[in-house]
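Quick one, probably user error.
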């Protein structure tokens, strides 16, 4: 329970924190009623094996080693929702509705100042089969979420349960489903689709 006692600090820190990263443009948002009822499922690399029962999010700190955060701890943090146009590089898009926590809130609560000063965040599935690299400005963007809900319901396995990345300023390839671990680096982390010829940034 790393996060419980820290929750109170969130609002107090908000002002200072909001000013501390570069202002970026926001992805367009929509009313909840515009969201599709049954979003399409695309991509199952790294989510084909059965999810382990004792899943937790492993965050690799620069100093002090990894910390493991349970899904209950994550659900205990203030929830943020977003409805936006989810775009896949294959040429389709759909308006979808997600709920979760801001990645920036989590890193702030864990006092990850050193980590947040790095250039990149790398995320991968528990089996390391699918992995993405995200520039830090996009990772700390005020619409970047770690999601556990879609359409007000628990995320299904096909959509990335128990926790997936939703990063509206990027294309679908970057929205990693079933996050296993997160780490920080100044060099570009490996990226599944960048290795297969797609643009590394896939968005702004
Ligand atoms: N683990 C994992 N995450 C993934 C993928 C994948 O193959 N494996 N595909 C990506 C791609 S290309 C898209 S478009 C979105 C699709 O998300 P959805 O299935 O929830 O619509 O997931 C992304 N995240
Ligand atoms: Mo995609």
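Nope, works fine. Designed sequence:
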């Amino acid at each position: 329970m790393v996060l419980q006692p820290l929750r109170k600090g969130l609002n107090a820190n908000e002002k200072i924190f909001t000013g501390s990263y570069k202002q970026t443009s926001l992805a367009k948002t929509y009313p909840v009623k515009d969201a599709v009822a049954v979003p399409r499922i695309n991509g199952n690399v790294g989510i084909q094996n059965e999810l382990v029962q004792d899943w937790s999010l492993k965050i690799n700190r620069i100093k002090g080693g990894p910390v493991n955060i349970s899904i209950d701890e994550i659900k205990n943090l203030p929830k943020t929702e977003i409805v936006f146009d989810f775009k896949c590089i294959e040429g389709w898009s759909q308006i979808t509705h997600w709920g979760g926590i801001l990645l920036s809130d989590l890193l702030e609560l864990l006092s990850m100042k050193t980590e947040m000063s790095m250039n990149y965040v790398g995320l991968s599935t528990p089996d390391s089969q699918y992995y993405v690299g995200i520039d830090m400005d996009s990772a700390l963007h005020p619409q970047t979420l770690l999601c556990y809900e879609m359409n007000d319901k628990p995320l299904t396995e096909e959509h990335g349960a128990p926790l997936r990345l939703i990063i509206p300023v990027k294309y679908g390839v970057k929205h990693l489903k079933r996050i296993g671990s997160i780490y920080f680096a100044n060099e570009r982390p490996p990226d599944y689709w960048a290795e297969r010829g797609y643009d590394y940034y896939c968005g702004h």
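Residues 12-21 have pLDDT under 50 and may be disordered.
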